Amino acid sequence: MSETHLPALGAVGSPASLESAAVIDGLSGRDGTNRSRSGHCQLAADTDREAVLAWLARYAGSPNTLANSRREAERLLLWALAERGKPLSSLTHEDLLLYQHFLADPQPAERWVMAPGRKLARGHPAWRPFAGPLSPASVRQAMVIVNSMLSWLVQAGYLAGNPLSLSRHRRSAAPPRVVRFLEDDLWSEVRSAIATLPKATEREQATYWRARWLFSLLYLCGLRISEVVGNTMGGFFSRTDPKTAKLRWWLHINGKGDKDRLVPATDELMLELTSYRHWLGLSPLPQYEEPSPLLFPVWWQAPSRGAIQWPVQMTRAAAHAVVKDIFEIASQRLRAKGPEHHARADKLRAASSHWLRHTMGSRLADGVDLRHIRDTFGHASLTTTGIYLHTEDDARHAAINGRHRLGWDSLAS
């Protein structure tokens, strides 16, 4: 294998150069020393690459998980071939200990590390799997993904055993506090940045309403960016609280791990929803199972007559770009106030959509039952009997609706 060029794994279902290189070198994994010989393999895969692609195919509906899993699988396969001269299905416990150390300092750097500031396609001769050494937390996460892959391949009957299962598994202490969230003053800067966006033209107004609605969803619902672009307006529904006879709105979300959960749609969120839909030229509330996206592109407006052709969902990258643009505007506004604000401005520039999820959790933890936060964020699997706990759900809705507000009306438009 070339010292200066490493083949890439390729997307699920597409041809890639890794398989060809492995076959040429006799390292396809067909005769791997850790291949299961039981005759009960549940995969059609005959090579390591095919087996890994079968594992990755499980994440086709979760783009972020797929990208992370693909990256770690690719790195391990390439390392096994280039550094150990063996296929994935021949790796031993000792090999994987060496790989763990390798992740913290990928050497030789000219083979493994991309030149600073460069972002190249995998087919480019100068492409490399790493941007630099991984932090301890990133090394741990990489090994978690590798362990998950190897365990699945054992369960599928492709591998005889998981070499990582021999490692000591020490439960790491939880971080003492969440640091990637926005304090009150920074969150105020973000809201002000949105509220003061230009609105002279129709496109500027569309940009304003999209940003306002997106940040409302992220902050008031704690949604992941992938959940914003992966769900529809048809997820909104209402039911009556039997104790108070109050109509409560909910948002059904299909989220990470293909898990469903109910998120309280607070009174304030529903006002934002009706305002956003009014701008789009839609009815105030979504219709039953309406297939419209939760977030519309800025160019879309409802037709004055005739059937509505809904736009396709925005991509995760496009929604992420909207969030980063707002954080950049807020950062620049704060930086313009003087040098004493530069450090805080830098924090805003570094923020992402997930910071708003942490911000919501931080706010709610001060006075709201942690069980309500757990269920709203989907941190724990719901038991089968959870579908009958409407009283618990109504208490959760009331708690969050009463304590968690965004406050657009307090800002100058």
Care to describe what's here?
It is built from 15 helices and three strands. With 413 residues, it is mostly helical. The chain has two domains: 17-166, no CATH class; 184-410, hpI Integrase, Chain A (Orthogonal Bundle), CATH 1.10.443. Strands 1-2-3 form a three-stranded antiparallel beta sheet. The protein is globular and about 65 Å long. The N and C termini lie far apart (61 Å). This is Tyrosine-type recombinase/integrase.
Task: From the structure above, extract its key features.
hpI Integrase, Chain A, globular, 3-stranded antiparallel sheet, 15 helices, 413 residues, single chain, mainly alpha
Number of helices: 15
Assign an overall shape.
Answer: globular
Spatial strand arrangement across the major sheet: 1-2-3
CATH superfamily of the largest domain: Intergrase catalytic core
Looking at the structure, the CATH topology of the largest domain is hpI Integrase, Chain A
What is the strand content?
under 5%
Number of strands: 3
Helix content: 40-55%
What is the CA–CA distance across the termini? Answer: 61 Å
The domain tally reads 2
- The biggest beta sheet, please? 3 strands, antiparallel
* Rg for CA atoms: 25 Å
CATH class of the largest domain, named: Mainly Alpha
Structural class: mainly alpha
What does the average pLDDT come to?
A: 84
